Amino acid sequence: MTPGKEYLSSDEIRPLAERSDLMGAWLVLHCWGTIAAAVALFGFWPNLLTFALAVMVIGSRQLGLAILMHEAAHNALFRNRKANDIVGEWLCGRPILAELSAYRHYHLTHHRFTQTEKDPDLVLSSKFPTSRASLKRKFTRDLTGQTGVRQLAAQIMMSVRLAGDHDAVDAAASDFAQAFKARDLFKSLPVFLGIIALMGLIGDWWWGLAFWLLPYLTWFQFVLRVRNIAEHGATEQSEDPLRNVRTTLAGPVARLLVAPYWVNYHLEHHMVMHVPCWRLKEMHRRLLDKGLANRMRIAPSYWHALGEAGWRKA
Fold first, then answer.
1. Residue 87, domain extent
2. Which residues of the chain have pLDDT under 70?
3. Nearest to 300 by CA among 233, 259, 246
4. How far apart are alpha carbons 89 and 188 in whole angstroms?
5. Is 10 within the bounds of a domain?
6. pLDDT digits (tens, 9 = 90+) for 248-264
7. Considering the entire predicted model, what is its pTM?
8. Residue 80: strand, helix, or coil
9. Number of domains composing the chain
10. Assigned domain for 248 exists
């Protein structure tokens, strides 16, 4: 049963779940356009500030591509299943070394068994709350590229050694963000390298390394972890859809650098998973209008969500 039907009627859910091809196309265009604008900003005003900003914005838009692939996995990006599959695979998933079909199977299992023993993401969320020192170590590994390099190396090794053995790939995946791993890396790698090459042709030879590989290995890994912690870290391990997941309120800066495309409305997404991301804010308002605010797990900011996960601990 869709959890949201306990709180919203079918007549209320139906317009929220309406998909739009125009909006889906705009979101994909917006994501790639933001990436291009970040590179252009550095091209026009090359300095350390615009370089750092470009890396952070592009890393957040790499997460944006993952979010839009997630939308396609739920057939919520476009009305047509084929359009979801093609765009979600080649314009959203493969550029970040992800695979739509593998992700769809993994993610729907997560929805079915959220925060129970059968949830494939439980191994991630069950680690929280933790200590502030542990979070610092994790974030340091992410921002210095250690997490990204380790995972990329592991992904290459898995693709070489375990080609075609999907069960073995799932079992051998690293302990973080395994849902986004492409089982057959060598279908995604040419797309990933092609973006690097294209950026090098547009600007200096090193632009692709600086503005695609570097964000992927650093800021993308960091915001992916922050997103994961905020969504299910330090929530109830139960079947209560209002308590086993968290919505995190996000201002303009957070939406730019950490939480693009309404990914912060994660409780609402779990309520009715086929509602498009751009309608989740409206669903949030409707749930509040039902008087559910005190029952819903809502963090006023990502800083607060990290505090619940252990940042405030010594």
1. 19-237
2. 1, 161-184, 313-314
3. 246
4. 9
5. no
6. 999 999 999 999 999 99
7. 0.92
8. coil
9. 1
10. no
